[in-house]
Design a protein that fits this description.
Layout (H helix, E strand, L loop, with lengths): L3 E4 L12 E4 L2 E4 L1 H10 L5 E9 L4 E10 L3 E2 L28 E2 L1 H4 L4 E4 L9 E2 L1 H9 L12 E2 L4
Parallel strand pairs: 1-4, 6-8, 7-10
Antiparallel strand pairs: 2-3, 3-5, 4-5, 8-9
Length: about 160
């Protein structure tokens, strides 16, 4: 597992210190972000410390954590979601603008962060409403916009 990473060719003006970074398709998160995630879902995900430097002179940038999501769920309500590929993947977000994705609230249960098994949408991390609210309330920086997905509890 790497223990160091370098942001090269730019300074803090281009790469300000945020709580959430994406570096070579990997999530790097701050100690603050890690604390929130562990508080809401302790012992479900993995965090590996990485000392990050910036520029060719390796100026200190800070301690971050490589984040690996530890939960993969099938929370899709197959009766209310559409369309599906031949292999059973719902394409209601990525390939069908008129498609629909509905998650089954009972299947989500007490989970707050997970990878959705049967929805085509890239490498998205799915969040519970409580987790999204908590991340925003903590004022964590670098978050991408949240997309609201329908849940059976709200129908």
């Amino acid at each position: 597992m790497p223990t160091r990473a370098r942001r090269e060719g730019a300074g803090p003006e281009t790469f300000p210190q945020l709580d959430f970074h994406h570096l070579n398709a990997k999530a790097l998160i701050s100690e603050r972000a890690k604390a929130v995630m562990e508080d809401m879902e302790s012992n479900r995900h993995q965090f590996f410390p990485v000392e990050v430097t910036i520029g060719k002179d390796d100026a200190p940038y800070g301690l971050y954590f490589l984040f690996f999501l530890g939960t993969r769920l099938d929370t899709l309500d197959r009766d209310l979601s559409y369309p599906f590929s031949d292999s059973g993947i719902c394409q209601g977000i990525s390939k069908a603008p008129d498609g629909r994705v509905v998650l089954d609230s009972e299947k989500i249960g007490d989970h707050h962060m997970w990878a959705e098994q049967y929805v085509s949408c890239g490498q998205s991390i799915w969040l519970s409403d409580r987790m999204a609210e908590r991340l925003e309330a903590e004022g964590l920086t670098g978050l991408r916009a949240f997309q609201e997905i329908e849940e059976t509890k709200n129908l």
